[in-house]
């Protein structure tokens, strides 16, 4: 029987110490593509986390039945199944978010974060540990998306919870001049670089 603290370690590992973005630099495509607004970044993070949890669950359950020679194609089929379910759910219940995320939702299938956790952890570990690891990795990815999207939306638009006029919050007065570079693709690289530098400084400062 696994010690209780093992599950906590599996869950928290992906948040900071092995954060998929700030440490491993995985999932760069959606990270840079959908973080113009906080709502989009959070939505992509939740979708990716749901797929990661589902994939780790199924692969762990079937780990002793999956032939090693075809494990990667099977992993992709499992992930693609969950991505299809998530995409159809978004289209049905959040059509605006589905349209905004566009092609980045199907691209979750080839996200190295998910395939990496399936190959390195879920295919070798029991179900509960695999799910905890998948949840931690997904939450770590979501955290990175939210932080980057927050920075870009605040600096690039001067708002929060945009672009929907029913939910958007104007943070500054009428004289505020947004740094529109952060609302553009180039701004995603600049903001990410600054956040990576800050994250590394904090890791060294606290000896994590």
Could you characterize the architecture of this molecule?
The protein is an all-alpha fold. It has one domain (4-203). 64% of the residues lie in helices and 2% in strands. It has eight helices and two strands. The chain has helices spanning 4-13, 28-33, 38-61, 71-93, 95-101, 112-122, 127-157, 185-205; strands at 159-160, 169-170. Strands 1-2 form a two-stranded antiparallel sheet. Strand 1 and strand 2 (169-170) form a beta hairpin. Helix 3 packs antiparallel against helix 7 (127-157), helix 4 (71-93) crosses helix 5 (95-101) and helix 7 (127-157) packs across helix 8. It starts with a helix and ends with a helix. The model has no long low-confidence stretch (mean pLDDT 92).
Task: Give the total of beta strands.
Answer: 2
Strand content: under 5%
Query: What's the order of the H and E elements?
Result: HHHHHHHEEH
Label the overall shape.
Answer: globular
Helix content: 55-70%
Class computed from helices, strands and strand pairing: mainly alpha
Biggest sheet statistics:
2 strands, antiparallel
- Integer average pLDDT: 92
Low-confidence stretches: none
The number of helical elements comes to: 8
Strand order of the largest sheet: 1-2
Number of domains: 1
Radius of gyration: 18 Å
C-alpha end-to-end distance: 28 Å
Brief write-up:
By secondary structure, this protein is an all-alpha fold. The protein contains eight helices and two strands, in the order αααααααββα.
């Amino acid at each position: 029987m696994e010690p209780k603290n093992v599950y906590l370690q599996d869950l928290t590992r992906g948040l900071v110490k092995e954060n998929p973005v700030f440490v491993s630099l995985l999932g760069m495509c959606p990270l840079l593509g959908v973080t113009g607004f906080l709502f989009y970044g959070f939505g992509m993070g939740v979708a990716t986390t749901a797929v990661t949890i589902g994939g780790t669950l199924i692969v762990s359950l079937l780990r002793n039945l999956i032939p090693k020679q075809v494990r990667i194609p099977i992993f992709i089929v499992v992930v693609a199944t969950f991505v299809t379910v998530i995409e159809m759910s978004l289209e049905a219940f959040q059509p605006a978010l589905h349209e905004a995320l566009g092609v980045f939702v199907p691209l979750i299938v080839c996200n190295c974060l998910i395939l990496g956790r399936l190959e390195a952890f879920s295919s070798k570990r029991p179900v509960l540990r695999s799910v905890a690891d998948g949840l931690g990795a997904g939450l770590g990815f979501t955290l990175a998306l939210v932080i980057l999207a927050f920075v870009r939306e605040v600096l690039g638009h001067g708002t929060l919870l945009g672009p929907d006029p029913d939910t958007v919050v104007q943070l500054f007065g009428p004289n505020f001049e947004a740094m529109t570079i952060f609302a553009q693709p180039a701004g995603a690289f600049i903001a990410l670089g600054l956040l990576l530098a800050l994250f590394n400084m904090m890791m060294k400062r606290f000896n994590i």
